[in-house]
Amino acid sequence: MKRSLYLLTILALLLGGCKKPGPTAAQRIASFLESAWVSFEASLYPAAMQDFRDVLALDEENVEAKLGAGWSLVMIDDGGLDSAAALLDSTVTTDVDWQQDAWAALATIRLSQQAYVSADSLAELTLAQDPSYVFLHEPTIDWHDLLVYQAQARFAQALYDSAWVAVVPLLSGGSPFDNMLRNDPATWTSGGVTYTYFPEILALAISYFSELYRKI
After folding, report:
1. Residue 148 and residue 126: Cα distance in Å, rounded?
2. Which terminal CB of the chain, N or C, has fewer other CB atoms within 10 Å?
3. Mean pLDDT across the stretch 71-96?
């Protein structure tokens, strides 16, 4: 009997020693990140946010998770913009792999917060690095949005000529404003109405392009 118990104990120890090790922290992080972006790209932003948080619980300085969590909060749009901005800190905005996406997210946040100078500057930084910018995890957010941000931010500061500069690259898509010229009041028309005050027609153009391109 004692011999049988001894053999069973040895067998149990051997079997216990054959257990496969669990996933490493790096493997868990990679799995969470993959799951997070899948959810994000399916517009399941709360689920994405949870996965990004799980990454940050394992590595609180993970740049990709900070970026994803920040963007998730922007897309959830429930008043968490301050938290989103805090996530998109200097560790993200100075990382060459993620800084453009961070700037684009921050431009969105600052415009919503009516921090117009900051919104304009952040959009300009993104476009200066990549004039054809596209956010790969949500390709409907791209350089068009950033130009709209700039036009809106500048218009809000009564910088009408600068706002017009941001609008000009958008005037080649068959819009009602494609023939509009800054120095030709005869072209300041919309819906059969001719406007004599440039900011009025400019406001209509910006509103049109905001509806057409701005996603958030």
Report:
1. 13
2. N
3. 91
Mean pLDDT of 142-167: 98
- State if pTM tops 0.70: yes
CB atoms within 10 A of CB 1: 5
Backbone angles phi, psi at 202, to 5 degrees: -65, -40
Element (H, E) at 106: helix 99-112
Per-residue pLDDT reduced to its tens digit, 41-67: 999 999 999 999 999 999 999 999 999
Domains in the chain, CATH or no CATH each = 24-94 (1.25.40), 98-216 (no CATH)
Joined together, the tokens standing for residue 160 give 């009408």
Kindly give the pairing relationship between strand 189-190 and strand 193-194: antiparallel
| CA distance linking residue 71 with residue 63, whole number of Å | 12
* Res 8 pLDDT > 50: no
CA dist 115 and 92 (Å) reads: 20
Distances in Å between the Cα of 20 and the Cα atoms of 16, 17, 83, 200 are 9, 8, 40, 69
Could you give the residue ranges of the DSSP H alpha helices within the chain? 2-17, 25-41, 45-58, 63-76, 81-87, 90-93, 99-112, 116-129, 143-156, 160-167, 198-213
The mean pLDDT of the chain is 91
Q: Which amino acid is at 53?
A: R
